[in-house]
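My current task is to audit a protein record that another person submitted. Alongside the sequence sits a line of tokens, each denoting a local backbone shape. Please read both lines and tell me whether the tokens look consistent with the sequence. Do not assume that whoever made the record got everything right. Thanks in advance; the entry in question is below.
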Amino acid sequence: MNMQMQQTLKQIVQYTLPAPLHRFVGKQLLGDKYRPPVGAVDFGSLRRLIPISIRFGYNRGLPIDRYYVENFLARCADDVKGRVLEIGDRSYTQRFGGARVQHSDVLHISEGNPEATIVGDLVSADHIPSDAFDCLVLTQTIHLIYEVRAAIQTMKRILKPGGVALITVPGISQIAYDEWGDYWCWSFTALSARRMFEEFFPSENVQVDIHGNVLAATAFLQGLATKELRKDELDYCDPHYQVIITIRVVKPEID
């Protein structure tokens, strides 16, 4: 179909059809290039001021951000080995490290967590030994820390030379409704994440990737679950809609 015919059909659809039929015919004719005019957008279940889920979609299935987080960890599973430190619990250490993990530590900010082997945070962490860990698993954590640079400095200090930190941070996101909402300081972009980590690690040791698109972002903000989108819809990457940023950093063998 040439451009002139497309334009003619678009005008016929736009000015002669009621909105529901307009959307159907326009989509059939133009596919993803179809742009509904003003008044023809169908918000459906999304025309609401309160999201479908205020729990990131946990009550509906696997949250969309966790799809990206867990795919990232799966791709980097070989890094999860030796002595590993994870925040909050050791679920990802066990799931992605398995028999490669020789010793598992859990860092938690307060006492009372039965899984915690180290109590404290990444800012005030003088009691965490230097050059100690082969891998750090820090998913959806550093946005809760105001002194992000101090936390990154600690990561570098406690990693063994050649050790790897696997980090994920939110981009486009709702803010938690639970107690962590009181600590939520930041959202990131790929640029801000890269520039910040490159203050402490060589640029060639910092790998930053983005995940998400306008549909995934919309669904995530509404609290929909992974199973409510298709795999191709989740995997399509649009750098203008960064839902999750993943960061893999390696401490140099010789600093």
The chain has a mean pLDDT of 91.
